[in-house]
Amino acid sequence: MDQLFVNLKHSILIFAGxxxxxxxxxxxxxLISVTAIAVFGPVTMMYLTLLERKFVGRIQNRFGPNxxxxxxxxxxxxxxxxxxxxxxxxxKGADHFAHFLAPVAIVIPALLVxxxxxxxxxxxxxxxxxxxxxxxxxxxxxxxxxxxxxxASRNKFSLLGGLxxxxxMVSYExxxxxxxxxxxxxxxxxxxxxxxxxxxxxxxxxxxxxxxxGFVLFFLTGVAEVNRTPFDLPEGESEIVxxxxxxxxxxxxxxxxxxxFMNSFTISAIVSTVYLGGWQGPWLPGWLWLLIKxxxxxxxxxxxxxxxxxxxxxxxxxxxWKFLLPLALLNIFAAGVWLAFARPVNYLLSxxxxxxxxxxxxxxxxxxxxKKRVYRYAVE
Length: 380
Prior knowledge:
The chain contains 14 helices and no strands. The chain has 380 residues and is mostly helical. It has one domain.
């Protein structure tokens, strides 16, 4: 199936090459990739919203959307029509240009990241030699547009959500970058395609001691980067109305929503690529393996939302700086030891380092349990 898509694209380009100049064939090749991403991204977002509403509904003992279309499958289309037809309200004192620019610009990096995701063998839009750096750089720009949206709204609750977002994303980007370093050390390349090829034959990095910790680190920091529960302080509706997008309505709000869900998919796809073997797997087509792994991680995110409470601000920042950051640094050391020794010694030493790191950091950051209260009354 992977080769079928590749052959189809090559056939179109060969056919075009018989009639068009070389520059036009290159342009057609680019347009095919861009069109595929531009269609796949929004469609993925639309049905991820339905999946989440169904999934969380079942956790809360209800059905979720089930009125529009068979099993509610047309609900995302109905929501899209509603967003398009709702009035666009802009606060009187807002910066109109920045208020318009932020939701439009935040979708662009979410779409561009799809370009370096290898969906199957030879199924990547651009095999960049710096694919992982491209992903990390683009994902960090989301912070800028969230703060622009908050500042442009001229609303104190929006500004508070924007400031929380900046603090959170800067804090979690550092352990996120460090969590990928062990894989880069082992593979010796920043290319997402090379990383997948290095895990062929069930040699998934998650099956190593340092890979398991790196996988958990990368996934948790990715959840924090897309502001998902329990890291959703920038959108703390129980405290700051709706955070940075309080003053957005209609299609502008839908664009923020679209960016969040597309980022959730790309984070899951990149985590699957880096630690779970990407499209590698037996029997099934490669693209299907990547989708299975990615959607499994997305379901974990939704499970978090349905079961976990939101962190307090001090818990959120402490978890990043006091636990995840030192654990990521020690995991790099464990990966170095794994590379320096032969099997099975490297597995044993790496596992000991990781276990000691978890033990020490857990007890160093364990909160003090409050003592049982003893009440004294005037009359006893």
